[in-house]
Amino acid sequence: MYGAGTTMDRVWVGALVVAALVCVFQAPFTAAQSGAPFDVRIACGSNTESYAPDTGHLWSRDMNYTGGSSGNLTTISRIAPQLNTIRYFELSDGPENCYNVSVPNGQYLIRMYFSFGDKDNSGREPEFEVSIEGTLVYTLNRGWSTVVDDEYADSLAHILDGAATVCFHSSGHGNPVVASIEILQVLDNAYDMGTSFPSTNFILRTVKRVSAGAEKSGYGSSLQADPWGGDRYWATDQTLFTPGSAVSVQTTVSNITKYSNPPNVYPQAIYQSATTTGPTNKLSYTIPVTPNQNYSVWLHFAEIEPDITGPNMRVFSVSANGQPLFPVVDIVKMAGGSLTALVLNATVLVEGRTLTLTFEPLAGTISVNAFEVYQLITREQPTSADNVWALQRMKQNLELPARLGWNGDPCIPQVHAWYGVNCEFEATVGAWFINGLGLDYQGIRGQLGDSIVALQRLQSLNMSNNLLTGVIPDAIGNVSTLTTLDLSYNRLNGSIPASLGQLSKLQELLLNDNQLTGEVPSSLGSFPIRGGMLNLANNDGLCGLGLRSCNNMSHGMKTGIVFAIVGGFIILVLGGYLCWKRRMNMIRGAQRLPRDAPYAKARTTFVRDVQLARNVLANHFSRPAPSYTDTTPLNPH
Ligand SMILES: *[C@@H]1O[C@H](CO)[C@@H](O)[C@H](O)[C@H]1NC(C)=O
Ligand SMILES: *[C@@H]1O[C@H](CO)[C@@H](O)[C@H](O)[C@H]1NC(C)=O
Ligand SMILES: *[C@@H]1O[C@H](CO)[C@@H](O)[C@H](O)[C@H]1NC(C)=O
Ligand SMILES: *[C@@H]1O[C@H](CO)[C@@H](O)[C@H](O)[C@H]1NC(C)=O
Ligand SMILES: *[C@@H]1O[C@H](CO)[C@@H](O)[C@H](O)[C@H]1NC(C)=O
Ligand SMILES: *[C@@H]1O[C@H](CO)[C@@H](O)[C@H](O)[C@H]1NC(C)=O
Ligand SMILES: *[C@@H]1O[C@H](CO)[C@@H](O)[C@H](O)[C@H]1NC(C)=O
Ligand SMILES: *[C@@H]1O[C@H](CO)[C@@H](O)[C@H](O)[C@H]1NC(C)=O
Ligand SMILES: *[C@@H]1O[C@H](CO)[C@@H](O)[C@H](O)[C@H]1NC(C)=O
């Protein structure tokens, strides 16, 4: 359906196509949502914008992604043949990388084209996973690149937070790679599955979308479909049947009524062809699926056979894996006439690896125009917004290395939570909260920052053995759930905030081997008594907590100095007097001695005494200093 590009100016083609779409599609139906749908098409890895030669669609340059490198595509995209680049994410970019694109809230068809080049994966097919809005939707297992439907994967998702987030999760087998992402708005109430399956609770992953009896496969845009349908891809079923099988194709050029009847907005073309059978013949389609999942099945009918003009002339049943979906379908009766579209939907649980749709005649023969099968993927609940904010700020403040990732939602998909982040789900709030951070031994150089106070469920923080600088934020005393705080072996300076004493649940406080100074707040005094583990060793400037009272010590030192000076003075005076006396004696004995010798000796002695005192103190308080380095609970329960 995509012929050779014209030599006309692409912009002109684009304008013409847009104008044509407006003329053709505004007229025949009343859309439930006015105006043009929002759409954004991203040419991954490309730094220029371009227009698709046949559809006139604008493809934006690569934007709103985290990490990654760009490479060249070796296969041609069917959707946009002018695209020739990809984006791929190496492990050094982190295990989670995302596109985050601002869009108005609403329902979207999100389609990706997966392909790989040579530079990105040395020609080997990578295996990885893809999530949409934090919910795991695609697993690209070995062999995906040989299955056309897996290459052009699409899903329907409601965007509720103002941005469409698509994340690529590395499984360690090659670099995740993507060639294009289309985010195309559809009607909010399209694909309403009834009250048992509220559509905002699910992401609908397209398993199969078939236009029965169609000559060839095509996209909505090539079928002159309403753009509110999201440019869906309709595969022909003609390749499924062996020549000579008991099926035939029925087509019409007549107009179909209600083909675009919101919320069911479909291309007219899918109703203008049908696969039919001979009398008494069943018709079956067998579709490979993931077992033990619910599937939403959408069936499209329109009576296009001129001979069938009234009810009861064609009646059949539809079942899925033997379970009846629609026991009695009479197209003319249910649609209200011939050449009129009828859309039926039902949800079915499939236990095995295939879903077989069977149409069985009750009167007359079978006629099927189109069908769609979607896997219902239950959406994961997001992480609480304030917790996300806090971690994003920490990522900045701590200057986390790219290899840690920390992109997308911290807790979901659950199987791809951020490195070092532990989460707990709180059902009453319907959100995930961070209850543990383990970033020990990561070579982190930044600062802790105040934002940690927003982690109101944080129980354990271990950032030992890094190169953290700056102070321990006062705000940490407001994280009242903390039971373990290990900031040992860093380069933290400043004093220990007194607010730590407010943490009544704190069991382990390890601040040893930093450059902390000043007095240990007296609020920590009760800490070992209530059974906590406290280690403050190897902070040269630290003092207090009844072990070595900094103020008293310096006071004592002053006293010592005063005593020493006074003592020295006395010694000097005494010595001088003695000396004088002796000199007098010596003069008397006709001998001379240097005048300043006694003074010099006294001063030397004094300096040595002070040094000695310092050494004694230093030895007494340096590692290991069991007197106040309690690494075993005093009061274990
Ligand atoms: C992609 O192809 C262009 C020219 O076609 C070339 O200049 C560029 O270096 C290639 N990029 C990579 C990553 O191979
Ligand atoms: C994505 O990029 C576009 C263009 O650079 C920008 O206008 C838009 O605000 C960005 N959206 C987000 C969510 O960052
Ligand atoms: C799909 O079927 C359910 C009932 O099973 C119905 O409530 C809903 O309106 C149908 N959706 C559409 C779009 O026709
Ligand atoms: C179908 O409807 C259009 C107007 O919507 C009309 O121009 C055209 O002639 C109709 N085609 C047939 C075969 O009736
Ligand atoms: C399928 O839907 C039923 C409700 O009809 C629900 O009870 C069941 O948990 C769903 N199964 C899965 C795997 O989602
Ligand atoms: C996506 O971008 C928006 C706007 O820039 C931002 O508020 C939001 O946190 C981002 N979401 C993710 C998952 O990164
Ligand atoms: C923090 O991590 C370090 C290094 O992995 C480990 O030795 C230490 O036991 C952890 N601290 C706590 C309180 O578990
Ligand atoms: C911590 O709590 C105290 C008292 O509730 C409050 O005054 C202070 O602003 C809080 N600090 C931060 C950083 O939230
Ligand atoms: C802590 O160290 C930083 C340099 O890493 C310095 O700028 C700051 O003044 C120090 N703060 C204190 C209280 O010593």
UniProtKB/TrEMBL annotation:
Subcellular location: Membrane
Domain Malectin-like stretches: 42-375
Record keyword Protein biosynthesis present: no
Keywords on record: Membrane, Signal, Transmembrane, Transmembrane helix
GO CC terms of this entry: membrane
Record SUPFAM superfamilies: L domain-like (SSF52058)
Signal sequence coordinates: 1-32
Transmembrane stretches, start-end: 560-580
Membrane-topology annotation of the record: Single-pass membrane protein
Gene3D superfamilies: Galactose-binding lectin (2.60.120.430), Ribonuclease Inhibitor (3.80.10.10)
Pfam families to which the protein is assigned, alphabetical: LRR_8, Malectin_like
Domain of life: Eukaryota
PANTHER family in alphabetical order: OS07G0107800 PROTEIN-RELATED, RECEPTOR-LIKE PROTEIN 4
Protein name in UniProt: Malectin-like domain-containing protein
